[in-house]
């Protein structure tokens, strides 16, 4: 699953996000969704979320 649709992202879900400073390198950070920050239903670069660790980034992959 990808992170471009807001409806597929739920609080407490384990995801891989790319932080703003890692967009060039593509480094992904794993964490649990604490808050969904994007209001629109979809976003081409991924829905922006805040993880429980405090990291803010765009969802690239949803882990099962």
Explain the overall architecture.
This protein has a single domain (6-62), classed as SH3 type barrels (Roll). 0% of the residues lie in helices and 39% in strands. It contains no helices and four strands. It has strands at 14-19, 29-36, 48-51, 56-62. It has a four-stranded antiparallel beta barrel with strand order 1-2-3-4. β3 (48-51) and β4 (56-62) form a beta hairpin. The relative contact order is 0.38. The model has no long low-confidence stretch (mean pLDDT 95).
Secondary structure layout:
Elements: E1 14-19, E2 29-36, E3 48-51, E4 56-62
Helical content, roughly?
Answer: under 10%
How many helix segments? Answer: 0
> Largest sheet, if any?
4 strands, antiparallel, barrel
Poorly predicted ranges = none
Q: How many distinct beta strands?
A: 4
Please provide a brief summary of the model.
This protein has 64 residues and is an all-beta fold.
Question: Which terms summarize this structure?
Answer:
mainly beta, 64 residues
């Amino acid at each position: 699953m990808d992170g471009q649709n807001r409806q597929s992202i739920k609080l407490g879900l384990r995801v891989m996000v790319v932080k703003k400073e890692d967009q060039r390198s593509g480094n992904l950070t794993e964490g649990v969704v604490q808050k969904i920050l994007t209001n629109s239903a979809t976003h081409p670069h991924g829905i922006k979320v805040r993880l429980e660790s405090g990291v803010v980034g765009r969802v690239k992959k949803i882990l099962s």
